[in-house]
Amino acid sequence: MRFDMSRSDSDARHYAEISSADRTSLPRSFYVPQEDPRAELRETVNTVLSDKFMAFISLFVIPIILLPLIFRIPREDLLFLDVCDWLLIGIFLIEYLSKLYLAKDRWQHFKSGWHLLDLAIVVIPFFQYLPFLGVTLTGSPSLLLRLLRLPRAFAVGGRAVAGRMREEAAIVPKEKVEAKIKIRMVDSNLTVYENLTWDALIGYIRNERQKWIDISNMTDDGFRRLSEILHIPEQHFKSKLLDELYPHVDYVGQASLIFLHTDQLRYPEFSDSYLKIIRSGVIAICMNNNIITVSLGENALFNTVLSNTSTNPEAQSFVVMVLHNILSHLLSEYRSILSEIEFDILRVSGIPRSKLPKDFLERIYELNKEMSRLASNMSHLRETLGIIIKRHVTLSGFDEDSKKSFEALQDEASYDHEVAANLRGSLLSIIDLYIDRTSYETNRILKILAVITSLSIIPTTIGGLLGENLRDVPFNLVLWQIVGITAILMSLSVYVFTRLGWLKT
Predict the structure, then answer these.
(1) Which of 88, 244, 283, 480 is the most exposed place for a label (fewest CB within 10 A)?
(2) Total tally of structural domains belonging to the chain
(3) Does residue 34 lie within any of the structural domains?
(4) How far is CA 413 from CA 22, 246, 374, 385, 390, in A?
(5) pLDDT tens track for 477-491
(6) What is the largest CA-CA distance in the chain?
């Protein structure tokens, strides 16, 4: 059997990019440019002046507006209500102007129905000053101004309802659209069969020809149906934990279940997100002439492995070749991720600390956590390959040539695991260096404060001993002599600190 063992040249490409890239710019793992520079401030304003808080304020404004219309209130109490009213109007005005300024699209924000209601709340109270601006009102001005309280009350009441409706709209979960289960098959002649049904699948499994069946977008009901077809207890599929399980092998009767991952590197898209390795679980069920791969979602595994398999049509065992190419594809994904992370680590290790983001430690800790999980999975994958090499997986046509090919994959897995361990060591070194630099700079600040304190003690002590009177002191000194003695003592202190190295930059 001949398998394609060519390695990716991504490592060389990344090393070449380092020489041409700007070494002072942060890689995507540690820095995400903000598409909206007002996003952080907008989130702060929305947190402080939330819809729930403004609805709560609205409940206080309504009685302040309506009480003077219903009851005869003494002038002193009415003045107190007016002060409270204008304080609350000020809060509404601050909320409206700040959210309008920080909105992504200010025109869309302005013409929104709810925001026009907010504008009415802050504009209507100023109509009472129209007489002072020389604007004449038809009829009794006091009556008209009193009647303006009614639309204000309706506007503020609508604001309270709007706050409740916005809060409920924010927590309404979106309906999850479940993708349809897709069943595909390819036989030893590389003939592909798309969109198979469960009944058709039963007939193909009973066929003695070697074949590969791929089932994607799997659901719990699908696992239940597959369990009935293959006579494998449903709990062995572990569908709810499929994405989190480490690579390993389970045995059920004549079937071998190999739990694997297809990994994809996802860079942070927002300033508060971190680099993640998204893992999609895959089960490879080996049953003599059949190999069945099952995944919870869509992935490129089927098409990629099929294209690699098409380049080796002369292989003796089709199912062994498919399993080999699946594992080779997963190792290629691991190498690609390692190469990307290694590139980022090399970039960030040469960046001055002053140019690192404030949350650098959090980002590098998250990266180290992902690397730890990746190294652990690669170690388990190496052990899984060892089990396959020992022929503990039931596949037809597994011979000595197949064993050598899988041993080569195991060597690659061992090498990649060693690279991952070295990258973890590099990350830990960067963390230690960052903490040491921070401690050193903190120590420098403390030393500077100690020098300033020591120098200030000298004139403070002399001034405290002499006070403001130089005539009654036991020493016959004048002012210039005291200044000179103080300067000499301070100069000696500076010399001592210089010799100790506390004033070095």
Answers:
(1) 480
(2) 3
(3) no
(4) 32, 15, 12, 9, 16
(5) 667 777 888 888 888
(6) 118
